[in-house]
Design a protein that fits this description.
Layout: E1 2-10, H1 23-38, E2 44-50, E3 53-60, H2 67-86, E4 111-118, E5 124-131, H3 139-147, H4 154-157, H5 159-162, E6 165-171, E7 176-182, H6 186-193, E8 199-206, E9 212-216, H7 221-224, E10 235-239, H8 247-252, E11 259-262, E12 268-271, E13 273-274, E14 290-299, E15 302-308, H9 316-330, H10 350-357, H11 364-370
Helix pairs in contact: 1-2
The protein binds magnesium ion.
The site of magnesium ion has 6 residues, from loops.
Length: 383
């Protein structure tokens, strides 16, 4: 059976700053999705949050970029925004960049990843959702899951995976993508995806049969809006088992709390911290960047689950290391490399502040001329 899992997310305002979605806004979104399910637009759904992002997980048989499914998500965000405004929540409706819906959600603010597949007899998937970072943050774990045999034993052991995978990499600045083969082109692949702010792994396919293995959300809010309106916190869907990474191989890729851009004001590098659903709040310095993972099975377009994948003491050491790195990075205060590099700050308000100082900058020789001379050689009795 052909079915689609659409994960669509937006920050529609949060409680006491940018840290957590209010339950009443989730309830408002739930009413819209329940009605869409009753009408048969979607077959199943699950609503959750990570930090200040409201996440709508929907399953249906209507394919990608379907008008009705996207309109359902849009209505859910609109209704949630209404509640957000009534409660005076912070940054209400932040990610909704347009007043009216037209066709689909592309370029309208919400981020989305849609997995359109022919279901296998058993179709296990993991959905990873992060707050306070950007889509390129999934480059490193996707490489580990699908290309690194030190992470994924199946690349060595499983004959279907042994041929390798194809990575579709998008240049978000040029809007063009390239497909690179693993393992033959891994060095070129790493040459691109090591710059995650620009090159994002959009999809991964299994080489043996071109089967889609993962899909990442790629909307870059800061580029869409032309000015900074919040980091585009990403989502990722990964198919598991039977020729794809085992669940544990997908999770293993997050056992190291690597540094990602985002965090406070979308302007700092920090460690990504995999947490359980109940710890999916961005508190310390609005972070550190959080990641949750939910496991589902998809059957006849319906979702069974979820399992809260990082709700496990096996990830305690990862979290402890992330907390240590948080301390270490924070001590740099406003200095790079804790703060992002200037090109990544273009969409923040920092350039305006630097611009204000421009009239006060003088050439070196003018500074020297203007300097009051306190001691002359005469004063020093050297004549
Ligand atoms: Mg967010």
């Amino acid at each position: 059976m052909r079915s689609t899992v659409s994960v669509i997310k937006a920050d529609i305002g949060s409680l006491a700053g940018h840290h957590v979605v209010h339950p009443d806004t989730m309830a408002a979104a739930n009413r819209v999705l329940a009605e869409a399910k009753r009408q048969g637009i979607i077959l199943d759904y699950y609503i959750t949050n990570v930090g200040d992002d409201l996440e709508l997980i929907m399953s249906h048989t209507r394919g990608e970029l379907d008008t009705k499914v996207h309109e359902t998500a849009w209505d859910a965000f609109k209704e949630a925004t209404k509640v957000s405004k009534e409660l005076g929540l912070y940054a209400a409706g932040q990610d909704l960049l347009s007043d009216s819906f037209s066709g689909n959600l592309k370029g309208m603010g919400p981020g989305m990843a849609e997995l359109d597949i022919e279901e296998r007899p058993s179709e296990p998937i993991a959905i990873f959702m992060a707050d306070k970072t950007e889509p390129g943050a999934f480059n490193l774990p996707l490489y580990k899951m699908f290309a690194d045999p030190f992470n994924t034993a199946g690349l060595v052991i499983d004959p279907t995976m042994n041929e390798g995978f194809k990575f579709e990499v998008l240049d978000v600045y040029e809007g063009q993508s390239v497909i690179l083969n693993s393992p033959e082109e891994i060095y070129s692949l790493l040459g691109l995806i090591g710059t995650p702010a620009r090159y994002v792994i959009r999809r991964v396919y299994r080489k043996a049969d071109n089967m889609l293995g993962s899909v990442t959300s790629i909307e870059r809010l800061n580029l869409i809006a032309g000015k900074y309106v919040g980091k585009d916190d990403p989502v990722l869907i990964v198919r598991l088992q039977h020729g794809f990474p085992a669940l544990g191989e997908a999770l293993e890729a997050f056992s190291f709390p690597y540094l990602v851009p985002g965090w406070m004001r979308g302007s700092h590098y920090g460690p990504i911290m995999p947490v359980s659903q109940r710890d999916a709040k961005a508190t310390r310095f609005d972070g550190p960047p959080r990641l949750i993972g939910l496991g589902f099975n998809v059957k006849n377009g319906r979702l069974t689950g979820p399992s809260d994948l990082f709700d496990d003491p096996a990830f305690d050491e990862t979290r402890r290391m992330a907390a240590m790195i948080t301390d270490y990075m924070r001590r740099h205060g406003p200095f790079m490399p804790h703060r992002l590099e200037p090109t990544e700050m273009e969409y923040t308000t920092l350039p305006t502040l630097i611009e204000k100082l421009k009239p006060r900058f003088k050439k070196e020789e003018d500074v020297a001329k203007a300097k009051p001379s306190v001691y002359t050689s005469k004063d020093q009795g050297m004549d």
